[in-house]
Design a protein that fits this description.
mainly alpha; single chain; 0% strand; 90 residues; elongated
Length: 90
């Protein structure tokens, strides 16, 4: 595990951010259109998923500001993990 003040911690979070943006793009292009077309109630499910992605992207952007050893950085990482876990459960 990277120490709180390390460059490795910032790098890891940046890499996760890139992966999330890529995953979101794929879901927007392929998953959500298919869900809307083939799943009853798919429009609502897709809208909820897109809203969750927007919140996750907001956290990723917020993580670019504080230093990795700041308390706010740790809170943002915890919030990101929580939201991702909730999103993946659905």
């Amino acid at each position: 595990m990277a120490s709180p003040d390390s460059a490795a911690r910032r790098e890891l979070v940046a890499r996760v951010g890139v992966e999330l943006v890529q995953r979101t793009a794929i879901e927007r292009e392929y998953l959500y259109p298919a869900v809307i077309e083939h799943v009853p109630g798919g429009s609502q499910w897709a809208a909820r998923g897109l809203a969750e992605h927007a919140g996750i992207e907001e956290i990723v952007r917020a993580l670019q500001g504080p230093a990795p050893d700041q308390e706010v950085f740790g809170r943002l990482v915890l919030d990101l993990v929580t939201r991702l876990t909730d999103h993946l459960r659905e």
